[in-house]
Design brief:
Catalytic activity: (S)-3-amino-2-methylpropanoate + 2-oxoglutarate = 2-methyl-3-oxopropanoate + L-glutamate; 4-aminobutanoate + 2-oxoglutarate = succinate semialdehyde + L-glutamate
Cofactor: pyridoxal 5'-phosphate
Number of domains: 2
CATH topology of the largest domain: Aspartate Aminotransferase, domain 2
Protein name: (S)-3-amino-2-methylpropionate transaminase
GO molecular function, one term: 4-aminobutyrate:2-oxoglutarate transaminase activity
EC number: 2.6.1.19, 2.6.1.22
Length: 451
């Protein structure tokens, strides 16, 4: 399958070392222009992208296994996205929906109300980033319940604003030195099957893992003070942790019983990435609120909070919004991206990609015990690397694999609380051939590094 990128040859090509001289020249300019706090995984400066390829300033063509961190899920420069955004830009670029509204904002809200889990009446607010969506979800939950406490989880990532840093688990690089953080945020133990069960030699069911959380809430906070439970159905930056079956449904039932707003943060997992439109659908849970961003608009900045009408409407007029929230070009792009997800078979493609990746990783795992765990859903797959004959995290090996891949024209992303995980987030428009070539490079990296 290829949607977009037809003008860009779909092949890995090494013209210079990576990064090459032109990229290095731009990198030197960057040092005197861009704040050092903004990092880049691979400073090969991109000039074109499409299908499964990123073309850099030196003419190198890299296989993209990151999708801009799950943003270009529908494919970079997807024609539906480009055409819709271009038409909108030619009409007008901005009015601010809070001043002069426009129909595309309403259309995106209607689409999200239709697509997100549950057949109840819903409402949507559009914003700019995933962190902004999560922060607004907390605001809405607090306004609706009249409560303050927010429960989040080990290994969670929710953003880089003050409140979402408090909600995020990992200190460096996200939180260290940036405090003090917002209060009334409480962290609960996550269901982490690899480290709870198989590797640890124990067996903790999803229901039992949820009971640990419930006990913590009841004994350390008091459910009557909890406004929201906020969780990624599949954790992103934490390492693509898929909780044990039963964990999420048990927490949803508990939240309903106690009048707690259950918020699914689907910023990274949403929009066909896992083989369903939303990861919540895998266990049939229906969140009260769901936050989305990343893949929503095919590369343009947009995010949303969608949820039960009574909860969303508990916040009065004028209390939600922002100058750029639901920008008209981003709304048009979102309608194009959503059309692609629904009409171009992208959820099914995500499942096919996942099968290819898991098959290749499983073969590597049989040869290299350092591949400790393989997990994820659809085209959101991770490999957790450990020390030989141990479950100790092996961050050094992961870094070396990523470096080898970069030098050989494959972009892979690392992640995880322990920085020991390779995550695979290819655009759903990548071909089987490119995916196979990328994993040939990964296999070569392991052969060189592990013998």
């Amino acid at each position: 399958m290829e949607i977009g990128g037809e003008a860009l040859p779909q092949e890995r090509k090494i013209v210079t070392e990576i990064p090459g001289p032109k990229s290095r020249e731009i990198e030197e300019r960057r040092k005197s222009a861009v704040a050092t706090g903004v990092g880049s995984s691979l400073p090969a400066y991109v000039v074109a992208a499409g299908g499964g390829i990123l073309k850099d300033a030196d003419g190198n063509q890299l296989i993209d296994l990151g999708s801009g961190i799950a943003v270009t899920t529908a494919g970079n420069a997807n024609p539906r996205v480009v055409e819709a955004a271009k038409a909108q830009l030619e009409a007008f670029t901005h009015t601010c929906f809070m001043v002069n509204p426009y129909e595309s904002y309403v259309e995106v809200a209607e689409a999200l109300n239709r697509l997100t889990p549950g057949d109840h009446e819903k409402r949507t607010v559009l914003l700019n980033s995933g962190a902004e969506a999560v922060e607004n979800a907390v605001k809405i939950a607090r306004a609706h319940t009249g409560r303050d406490a927010v429960v989040v989880f080990d290994h969670a990532y929710h953003g880089r604003t003050n409140l979402t840093m408090a909600m995020t688990a990992k200190a460096a690089p996200y939180k260290a030195g940036f405090g003090p953080f917002a209060g009334e945020v409480y962290r609960a133990p996550m269901s982490y099957p690899y480290r709870d069960n198989d590797a640890a030699g124990t067996k903790i069911s999803g229901e039992d893992a949820a009971k640990r959380v419930i006990t913590m809430i009841e004994k350390q906070i008091g459910s009557e003070y909890v406004a929201a439970i906020v969780i990624e159905p599949i954790q992103g930056e934490g390492g693509f942790i898929v909780p044990a079956e039963g964990f999420l449904p048990t927490l949803v039932d508990y939240a309903r019983e106690k009048g707690i707003v259950f918020v699914a943060d689907e910023v990274q997992a949403g929009f066909a990435r896992t083989g369903k439109m939303f990861a919540s659908e895998w266990e049939g849970i229906v969140p009260d609120l769901i936050t989305t961003a990343k893949g929503i608009a095919g590369g343009l900045p947009l995010s949303a909070v969608t949820g039960r009408a009574d909860i969303m409407d508990s916040v009065g007029p004028g209390r939600l919004g922002g100058t750029y929230g639901g920008n008209p070009a981003a709304c048009a792009a979102a309608l194009g991206a959503i059309a692609s997800y629904e009409e171009d078979g992208l959820p099914e493609r995500a499942l096919a990609i996942g099968e290819i990746i898991v098959d290749r990783l499983t073969k590597l795992q049989s040869k290299y015990p350092e591949v400790g765990d393989i997990r994820g859903r659809g085209a959101m797959i991770a490999a957790e690397f450990v020390e030989h004959d141990s479950i100790e995290p092996n961050a050094d090996l992961v870094k070396k694999i990523a470096d080898y891949c970069a030098k050989n024209g494959v972009l892979v992303l690392t992640t995880g609380t322990f920085s020991n995980i390779l995550r695979f987030l290819p655009p759903l428009t990548i071909s089987d051939e490119l995916l196979g070539d990328a994993f040939d490079v990964i296999e070569a990296a392991l052969a060189e590094l592990l013998g």
